[in-house]
Amino acid sequence: MDLRPVERKLAAILAADVAGYSRLMAADEEGTLAQLKAHRRALIDPKIREHHGKIIKTTGDGMLVEFPSVVDAVRCAVEVQRGMGERNAGVPADKRIEFRVGINLGDILHDEKDIFGDGVNIAARLEGLAEPGGICVSRAVRDPVRERLGFTFEDIGEQALKNIPAPIHAYRVRFGGAEPGERVMTRPLRRNTIAAAGLGGLVAACLVGAVGLYVWRSHAQPSAHVATSENAPLPLPDKPSVAVLPFINIGGDAKQERLADGITEDVITDLSRYRSLFVIASNSVFAYKGKAVSVQQIGRDLGVRYVLEGSIQTSGDRIRVTAQLIEAAANTHVWSERYERPLDDIFDVQNEVTQKIAAALAGLHGVLGEADADTVRRKPPANLKAYDYYILATQLKAHTSQTREDVGQAEAFLKKAIELDPLLARAYVLLGGVYDLKGNMGWGDESSIRLFERAKAELQRAVALDSSDARAYAQLGEIFFLLSDSDQGVAACDQARLLNPNDPEVLVMCGYWLFAVGRSGEGVEMINRAFRLNPHYPAWYDNMVDPFYATGDYNQVIRMVRRTRGEIPVWSQMLLTISYAQLGLRADAAAQVPELLRRYPDFSMERFLSDFGSIKDQPTLARYLEGSRRAGLPECATQAELQKYRSMTHLALCDAKRATN
After folding, report:
1. Is 16 helix (H, G, I), strand (E, B) or coil?
2. Which of 24, 322, 413, 594 is most exposed, with minimal Cβ within 10 Å?
3. What 3-state class would DSSP assign to 314?
4. What is the largest CA-CA distance in the chain?
């Protein structure tokens, strides 16, 4: 037993990554790596040494650095960002390497060659709030340096960071010279993270960029917090439970790294279709990628009995895959296998691994999912190059600060994947999600309705090609609801749940929309089950609050919306406002109204619902109208507003009120 004390101390922590790294690597892997090495050699590493910093980790585009003081950390960051601005002068915008930096002062634990603790987690999550070329710091950093350094600190308010107990007050450093450019974001038409929900599981599996990006993003992503032994262990489910850890890419090649992540996601998805198994979602297991965490700890953190570990290694046109199933508490092997096959056979190997795991668990517990093993697997890709383009698209969509340009590049990758493999159903699913997101964010020259129709067409192609893909049906259900076709929305979601009742993305998407048809209690149960299947759930789950509002759980609405990282989507802000009002918290509701009206002028609940999808269930609709009234917001549009917004869908009860006035 190692009885050496763990070193604990106060330190300034700097976390950095490259904005748009996946896109840069996809366009030119060798050139990007060469640029990155040159920047480090000529600028970054010398500046760190000059300011007495200690590099703790570097992985791909990421870096974690410890400084003895916040003054050293901020000065170093500013000088690096200014230097990068000069080095990028004359470089085309699509080829520039731009860093995002987060800095925090906090208590950290040293363990051999690594550091841990909330001080580290907060720094890395602040990095996720920084602009490309920018720096974001906590109040603990800003307060001691603002009088000593000649920089401006832009207050961006308190930020609710996932699994950090209290909100963190954050600031962007404005240091003059080569300032970061402003991000172009149009006002979201709907809950701006909901559109990406159908991509959630696939996206979460691909949060890893080339050359181990996820090791650093895992600090920045709200969903990627790894539980510690201080957290209460989750209870074991009443069925065989398993977590599939990210397959390790032994060779280190960026393209094979993407393949390893895609295989991990596919094994998780296929296993989850066995109804008698309990399978942790990919978003939660990818939080452990690149981390030295024991299987016993993972079992306790995620509340599972079994953990699957695996690796891939390629050599020419051959691939070696190893997999082993471990009983977590005892750290004993249940099953292991090694495969050496032609690279083109990788998806057959993946299918065999899935079935062997299910069979091993059946042998131990005497149960197997009701789904026939021959029908569990989705249609595999037929072209590895097309699959790689598909994974590249998911990486772009996974970026926490995704931009219009990121989404456009993802669309281009998906079209290339489809060109190479017109039968790759999952590429059509993701492309439908791209059009869904563009419609919700107001991105593109087409109307939102037209973009939703395009999304529907792509998703219908997907289910025609592969009728076993639950997420295709769930995403299609989302689109039907957005187009106010709740009957078809329910039918698509019912089919998604029939195909895979254990997929948390299916449960959240479909459970969410049940509020519109008067089945909110069922929706709440589905969303809560998704939280258990995905303990390190992605941030967009916290915007799926309507079923809680519709069942009268206003406190839960407030808790979830207030956890939102960054800007609260306009729909969620509306729900926050009317939930305060329903609880009689008039001052809190009134404080939200000016910002809501700024973001959505001429507000009426009638117009709001017209833009965002109708509510078919009349008692639920009445609850929304009641909340609007109690918050001092108009329920119905005026005649002048009807003339101004001619395409607005009318509520019958509002027409009746207007007729009597």
Report:
1. strand
2. 594
3. strand
4. 82
Q: What is the pLDDT of residue 375?
A: 44
Q: Tens digits of per-residue pLDDT, 621-658?
A: 999 999 999 999 999 999 999 999 888 889 988 999 88
Looking at residue 422, the DSSP 8-state letter turns out to be T
Nearest to 24 by CA among 217, 209, 289: 209
Evaluate whether 404 touches 411 at the Cβ level (below 8 Å): no
CA–CA separation, 574 and 257 (whole Å): 41
Distance CA 620, CA 353 (A): 46
For the question of whether the overall pTM of this predicted structure is more than 0.90, the answer is no
Over the Cα atoms of the chain, what is R_g?
Answer: 25
Residues 6+ apart with CB under 8 A from 238: none
Share of the chain above pLDDT 70, in %: 83
Given a contact cutoff of 8 angstroms between Cβ atoms, the answer to whether 436 and 479 are in contact is: yes
Give the pLDDT confidence of 271-285 residue by residue, as tens digits. 887 777 888 888 788
Rounded percentage of the chain residues whose pLDDT exceeds 90: 27
- pLDDT, one tens digit per residue, over 393-430 is 876 755 444 677 788 888 999 999 999 999 999 899 99
Token pair recorded at residue 17: 């990554």
Residue 620 has a CB neighbour count (10 Å cut-off) of: 22
- Please report how many Cα atoms fall inside a 13 Å half-sphere around the Cα of residue 340, on the Cβ side: 2
Distances (CA, A) of 167 to 68, 331, 544: 25, 37, 20
DSSP per-residue string spanning 468-488: T-HHHHHHHHHHHHHTT-HHH
Instruction: Report the Cα 389 to chain-centroid distance in Å.
Output: 19
β pairing state of 278-279 and 241-244: parallel
CA atoms within 13 A on the CB side of 194: 30
Phi/psi for 133 (5° steps) reads 80, 5
* The one-letter amino acid at 74: V
Residue 172 β-bridge partners: 136, 154
One-character DSSP codes across 435-472: HHHHHHHT-SSS-HHHHHHHHHHHHHHHHHH-TT-HHH
- Mean pLDDT for 245-255 is 78
Q: For residue 247, is it left (φ>0), alpha (ψ between -120 and 50) or beta?
A: beta
Instruction: Decide: 102 and 131 in contact? Cβ < 8 Å.
Output: no
The answer to whether the CB of 56 falls within 8 A of the CB of 17 is: no
Q: What gap in Å lies between CA 280 and CA 226, rounded to an integer?
A: 14
How far is it, in rounded angstroms, from Cα 466 to Cα 460? 10
Q: How far apart are CA 314 and CA 341, in angstroms?
A: 10
Residue in the structure block whose two tokens are 């892997």: 29
CB neighbours of residue 530 within 10 Å: 25
Q: How far apart are CA 24 and CA 18, in angstroms?
A: 9
The β-bridge partners of 242 are 279, 306
Q: What is residue 350's DSSP assignment?
A: H
Closest residue by Cα to residue 178 from 280, 96, 297: 96
Contact 512, 482 (CB under 8 A): no
Q: Residue 260 in contact with residue 165, Cβ under 8 Å?
A: no
Instruction: Check: CB of residue 432 under 8 Å from CB of residue 458.
Output: yes
Q: Name the residue with tokens 């709740």.
A: 486
Is residue 149 over pLDDT 70?
Answer: yes
The partner residues of 105 in beta bridges, in order of sequence, read 12
**260-272 burial, b if ≥16 CB within 10 A, otherwise e?**
bbbbbbbbbbbbb
The residues with which 311 forms a beta bridge, in sequence order, are 248, 322
**What are the tokens at 56?**
């703790």
Q: How many residues make up the chain in this entry? A: 661
